[in-house]
Amino acid sequence: ITDDWTAVQSTYQAHQNYYSDSLLPSNHLWQRFEGKDQLNFAWFHYSPRYHLIDPSPSNIIDAFVITKGYYTSLQRWLEDPLATKPKLPTALDLRTSYAYLLDNKMISDTVVLHPGNIKLLFGTRAMPELRATLRVVKAQNSNLTDNQIKTAIVTTVRNFFDITQWEFGETFYFTELAAAIHLSLPSDISTVVLVPDNDNNQFGDMFQVIAREDELFYPDITVDDVELVVSLTSTNMKQN
To answer: What's the average model confidence in pLDDT over 141-149?
Structure first.
């Protein structure tokens, strides 16, 4: 680092071997300087062949998209065991389908379209650690049958996770879902709790579920995931 600098002809190989922070405009030679704390360093960015770098964009906007077609296919797959699991659209599919979004962006913006993900909860098609059963204590003065209560709870849960009511990366709190269930069946149930099915989990583990920045929640739930019990015990609540 204390040696005198040596001018080297500006070639690609020279860029790989010599680091500098200034270019001598007279003869297109590189000059080497002593850096801070005896660190002689410079960084060069080389674009791959046939690629151009646009230095103008100042804002990079990541947009996560869940298409209506994918969302409808996912719902059909959850309701029909014979249906095929839908595949996420590719980035190319999104750029083709939503090209008008790219055409209307600011000249200083770069919009990157990413396919959003659905994070399933409760049912058998959810990840093992996110499978759970809703255990409900029926009110003594209820006039509804057990099946009617189960059906009403499933409908409420699906409405609670309406895709138009959620943002990507939003956290799920069971207390909010429990309040919605009690509001829909105010005089027919006494209490409702969420009990994880995974043997490695215990009561309370799913009272808060965090989504990633590209994820939305959706319930894989049927009447089989709702269980009516006479009372709540440490056993049926999986309390240690």
So the answer is: 90
